[in-house]
Design goal:
single chain, 51% helix, Pdz3 Domain, 10 strands
């Protein structure tokens, strides 16, 4: 039977992210004297609504987040309400800019609080960050102290000596002193059919254990092997005065690291003349659901912390995405407001509305392509 729990958690996470974002617009609009006409939970069609004071609160059919409908925010409606004091269109550029960035700020606050909780539970050491290339290994995080772990097991061959010794993904070799896959190959090379003792740490639960494994001679490799692949990860540790604001600092670190990773993937795409490296770095709702399902399967305290960390990561990602100066996004609207503030001349609302509509169509098309990719990859 299909497990509904991951699906429920998936809907809750997306709803929290969007509702917190919209709550930012909602609060700042009201504080700025702008009329909020509706705060909707979910996406229409509407199934229930109630007017409290001057605001309609609605419950909608599709359980993905929500929306805020502000008087005069629609560009074409703004033409007719421009002279009304409680209209978004009437307010000066600085006020409209505050309303637009409020959702982004709320996502940063949410992400910071969640990261703070996760870091407090792990003595202010981050979860391991996979390093995709030598450039990633050399990346300098703005905050905290980076520690490299270069012997993380990221692949275990089926029916291999390693699998029989219960060596698993996420283990890393602490003893003997091995730093790279080449070191491991050299250490095991002449030990075919001889028992080898390894001291392993584990990234998931911070445990340490000792295992005995018997390498097998491989004709293909011309040496003894245990059937594992190694990779490097980074762990960021926060100390001293960084601890009280470690959640925010970690969010900044992750954001910069994500941008650097995208730069590496983009370079790979250009070099290989293929969009595959770049597309691998993006996930839509289906891809996020796949991650949620995998995390829920962990169970226990680790699953709760991982879900908190995933939500924090998505919250910072949503903030970053929305601040981009692209049509239809908050950043795109903010760009036009900034142009108006600098030039003292309002951009033609009809032209701006057309640009945002085209931008929305492009974004929806990209989302469709990403969703198709995620569906094909979902197991």
């Amino acid at each position: 039977m299909f497990n509904l729990l991951p699906l429920l958690i998936f809907f809750i996470i997306l709803s929290i992210l969007v509702l917190v974002h919209e709550a930012g617009h909602f609060i700042v609009a009201i504080k700025s004297g702008i009329k909020v006409e509706e705060f909707g939970f979910g996406i229409p069609p509407k199934i229930w609504s109630k007017k409290i004071g001057k605001i309609i609160y609605s419950l909608n059919l599709l359980p993905f987040g929500g929306f805020v409908r502000v008087k005069g925010e629609d560009l074409e409606e703004g033409l007719s309400t421009y002279n009304e004091k409680d209209s978004f269109a009437h307010k000066r550029p600085s006020i409209r800019a505050l309303v637009l960035v409020a959702g982004i700020v709320m996502n940063i606050i949410l992400g910071s609080l969640l990261f703070q909780g996760v870091l407090m539970a792990s003595n202010y050491a981050s979860s391991p960050l996979m390093l995709f290339s030598s450039e990633s290994a050399n990346f300098k995080f703005p905050f905290g102290n980076k520690e490299l772990i270069q012997t993380v097991i990221t692949y275990v061959e089926k029916d291999s000596p390693a699998e029989k010794a219960n060596i698993a993904f996420g283990d890393y070799i602490k003893q003997p002193n091995i730093n790279t896959i080449i070191d491991l190959q050299g250490y095991l090379g002449d030990k075919g059919d001889k028992e080898v003792t390894l001291t392993l740490g584990n990234l998931n639960n911070n445990s340490t254990r000792t295992v005995t494994v018997t390498p097998k001679y491989s004709q293909e490799a011309n040496r003894a092997v245990i059937g594992v692949g190694l990779d490097s990860v980074a762990v960021i540790k926060y100390t001293g005065l960084q601890k009280p604001v470690a959640g925010f600092l970690h969010g900044v670190n992750i954001t910069f690291y994500s941008l650097d990773t995208f730069k590496v993937l983009f370079s790979m795409s250009v070099k290989e003349k293929s969009l595959e490296p770049v597309s691998a770095g993006f996930s839509g709702p289906v891809g996020i659901f796949g991650v949620v399902r995998a995390v829920v399967d962990l169970g226990g305290k680790q699953a709760i912390l991982s879900l908190m960390e995933l939500t924090a990561l998505l919250s910072f990602s949503l903030a970053l995405f929305n601040i981009l100066p692209l049509p239809a996004l908050d950043g795109g609207r903010l760009l036009f407001v900034t142009i108006e503030g600098v030039t003292r001349k309002k951009v033609n609302p009809k032209i701006e509305a057309t640009i945002h509509k085209i931008g929305m169509m492009v974004l929806l098309a990209l989302m469709l392509l990403v969703t198709i990719k995620d569906v094909l990859n979902l197991n």
